[in-house]
Every structure is written in C-alpha cells, then in structure tokens.
Design a protein that fits this description.
The chain has a single domain, classed as Peptide deformylase (Peptide Deformylase, Alpha-Beta Complex), CATH 3.90.45. The protein contains three helices and seven strands. The strands form two sheets. Strands 1-2-3-6-7 form a five-stranded antiparallel β-sheet. Strands 4-5 form a two-stranded antiparallel sheet. The longest helix has 20 residues. It is globular.
C-alpha cells in the first residue's frame, strides 16, 4: 500500500482491554475487495495516528483476519504493509523483547517470542505473499497474529504480572468513572 493511499483513510476507534472483541477469533477474509482495501487503509491510518507499529482488525472491532504493520518500524519514513489471512508457517530461535499494545493501555512487559518467522498471507490484490522477518518485525507479526486469535501479549506473562496489570487497570477505570 502506498503512503498516498492513507490520504483517503478514516481514523477508527481502537478497542482496549477488557473489551470482549479483543478475545474473539477473527474469521478468514473470503474475498479481497474494495471494502477490505478501505478497511486496510483505515487501519494503517489509525495505526500511524496512534502511534503504533502494528494493528490487527480485532483492535478496531472488525473480526476479520487482517493485520497492518510498518516493515521498518525503527527507521525514518513509513513502510506500510498489509497481510490478509496471515499465518506463521516457520519459526525459529527465541528472543525476549519489551512489548506494548495499543489495546493494553499504559503497560509494557518482556515477552518471549520466536526470533525469526516466515509468514504467508494475501496482499491487497489477493496474491499470496511470503514474508521473512526477524527482530522487531518478527515480534510485531507474532503479536498481531495473536490478536486475530483473541490472544493478547499479557497472556504470555506470568499469572502474577497479569494480575498486577488487571488490578492497576481496575483502579484506573474506577477512578475515571468517579471523575
């Protein structure tokens, strides 16, 4: 997708934990049509505005297997990419990286992931593509594909760390409802 396409995009609402849509499994996209292409544009725009480096359709309330991400998240300039029906077909090694999420507000933690992945999916023309990734991009792809299966990065943490986050969130939600 070209950066110029983002001028035709709309900002979408990003759902946050504990919204139930984040725990639902997305369904495969049957046909890559103009509606799917517009959703992808809107998702990319929303991701960059947030700002983030990846976004899954679940996070904007769409239960379709679509992820968007930046291929070069630490470099200047944007390298937007869309994968439809993404699937990890190979993975190796292990890396621990600090992760955060646009849907899990005010929290980050170290998560163990595969160091390298090979992902297949469809592009916006419906063509099958393969993407080899390592480092931050590999982590991002695993994180976003997890979203499509209703899995959040906090699910990879110990029960204690998850409980601490939930307690902190509950306190924050209670305080904001009193304000």
């Amino acid at each position: 997708m070209l950066r110029s396409d983002l001028k035709k995009a709309n900002k979408l609402k990003i759902y946050t934990y504990p919204d139930p849509v984040l725990r639902q499994k997305a369904r495969p996209v049957e046909e890559v049509d103009d509606e799917i292409r517009q959703l992808a544009r809107d998702m990319l725009y929303t991701m960059y505005e947030a700002p983030g480096i990846g976004l899954a359709a679940n996070q904007v309330g769409e239960l379709r297997r679509i992820i968007v991400f930046d291929r070069n998240p630490r470099e200047n300039g944007k390298a937007p990419c869309v994968l439809i029906n993404p699937e990890i077909i190979e993975a190796e090694g292990q890396v621990t990286t600090e992760e955060a999420c646009l849907s899990v507000v005010d929290f980050c933690a170290d998560v163990k992931r595969k160091a390298r992945v090979r992902v297949k999916g469809l592009d916006l023309d419906g063509n099958e593509i393969h993407l080899d990734a390592e480092g931050l991009l590999a982590v991002c792809l695993q994180h976003e594909i997890d979203h499509l299966d209703g899995i959040l990065f906090i699910d990879h943490l110990s029960a204690l760390k998850r409980a601490l986050y939930k307690k902190k969130l509950k306190k924050k939600l209670k305080k904001s409802s009193l304000d």
